[in-house]
């Protein structure tokens, strides 16, 4: 039997990373506070998972000030969008694969 999960991207294994990319795929950008609230994650979780996605060049980080307060926002890169879509395609393929292990060969 072939490896049916070979095209699943390990970078999106964690639910927080999956959530971050899902938000960024349908929005031009999201700031730190928004991601934290939407995903119900801690500051540390958001920071570590965005750093991991940034290291893979799947997201871009922009830092600025709004009314003298620091603001960090995240954008999906073209590389990230392609990788995430390939991951989703692999999940869909996995779900549609007939992997009935109880079949008897004749």
In short:
The protein is built from four helices and three strands; from the N terminus they run H-E-H-H-E-E-H. It is α+β, with helices and mostly antiparallel strands and 106 residues long.
Q: If you had to describe this structure to a student in words, what would you say it looks like?
A:
- By secondary structure, the protein is of the alpha+beta class.
- It contains 4 helices and 3 strands; from the N terminus they run αβααββα.
- A hairpin with a 2-residue loop joins strand 2 and strand 3.
- The longest helix has 19 residues, at about 80-95.
- The chain is elongated, with a radius of gyration of 17 Å.
- It starts with 14 loop residues before the first helix and ends in a 10-residue tail after the last helix.
- The model has no long low-confidence stretch (mean pLDDT about 90).
- Pfam families: HTH_34.
- InterPro entries: WH-like_DNA-bd_sf (IPR036388), WH_DNA-bd_dom (IPR027395), WH_DNA-bd_sf (IPR036390).
Predict the CATH topology: Arc Repressor Mutant, subunit A
Radius of gyration: 17 Å
Order of helices and strands: HEHHEEH
Q: Would you tell me the overall average pLDDT? A: 90
Using the coordinates above, name the CATH class: Mainly Alpha
Shape: elongated
Number of helices: 4
Which oligomerization state do the chains in this entry correspond to?
A: single chain
Main sheet properties? 3 strands, antiparallel
Class inferred from helices and paired strands: alpha+beta
Number of domains: 1
Helix content estimate: 40-55%
Just name the CATH architecture.
Answer: Orthogonal Bundle
Side-by-side strand order of the widest sheet: 1-3-2
């Amino acid at each position: 039997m072939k490896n049916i999960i070979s095209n699943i991207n390990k970078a999106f294994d964690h639910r927080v990373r999956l959530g971050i990319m899902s938000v960024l795929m349908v929005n031009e950008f999201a700031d730190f506070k928004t991601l934290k609230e939407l995903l119900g994650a801690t500051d540390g979780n958001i920071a570590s998972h965005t750093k991991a996605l940034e290291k893979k060049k799947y997201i871009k980080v922009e830092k600025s000030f709004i009314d003298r307060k620091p603001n960090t926002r995240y954008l999906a890169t073209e590389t990230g969008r392609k990788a995430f879509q390939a991951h989703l395609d692999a999940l869909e393929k996995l779900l549609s694969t007939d992997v009935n292990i109880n079949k008897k060969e004749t």
